Amino acid sequence: MNIFFILLSAIALSSALGVILMRNPIHSALCLIVNLVAIAGYFALLNAHFLALVQIIVYAGAIMVLVVFVLMLLNSKLEEQKSAGLFMLVVSSVFAVMFIVHMSKIYGAEFSTSGVASASLQGTVANLGRVLFTQYVFSFEASAVLLMAAIVGAAMLAKTTPERPRGDGERV
After folding, report:
1. pLDDT per residue over 67-103, tens digit each?
2. Are 86 and 80 contacting, i.e. CB atoms less than 8 angstroms apart?
3. Which domains, from first to last, does the chain contain?
4. Contact, 40 vs 4, CB < 8 A?
5. pLDDT by residue (tens digit) across 44-61?
6. pLDDT of residue 114
7. What is the mean pLDDT of residues 155-170?
8. Cβ atoms within 10 Å of 25's Cβ, excluding its own
9. CB atoms within 10 A of CB 61
10. Beta bridge partners of 165
11. Beta bridge partners of 171
C-alpha cells in the first residue's frame, strides 16, 4: 500500500506541475484530469470507493469535459508571453503567504477542536445526501448557478458576428 501512495503522490505532483507549466490550455486541462484521477486513487487507498468513483465520474469526467468544451469554444490561441514584473511576483507571493496562513489557522483550529467526527457526518451516502440537501442546499444550488453563468459567459464571449457586406461590395 505504501508503494501505491508514493506512486500516486508522484503522479499527482507531476500532473499538478503540468497544469501550471503547460502553455497550451488543452494540455493543461489534460494534466488536470490526470491529477483528479490520482486524487481518486487516494480515495481508493483510504477505502472510500464511493468517493473515488464520484471523483472520477463527476470531476474527471463531467467537469473536465465541460472545461475542455469551453476552452475549445473560446478557440483560445497561444498568446505572446509577457513577463510578469517584479511587482506582480511580490504581490502574488504576499497573497499566497496570506492565504496559506489564513487557511492553516482555519483548519488548524477545526482539526484541534473537532477530534473525532460526529456520528451524523460519518461516511454513508445517505448521511452525505442528507447533509448536502438540508444544511448545504444553498451552497449546492449557488454553485450550480455559478457554473451555468460561467458557461453562458464563455458562449457569449466566443460568439462572433458575421461580416456584413457593405453597399459597394466591400466587407466591413
Report:
1. 777 777 776 554 445 555 777 778 878 888 887 887 7
2. no
3. 1-75 (1.20.120.1200)
4. no
5. 898 888 888 888 888 877
6. 47
7. 66
8. 17
9. 14
10. 171
11. 165
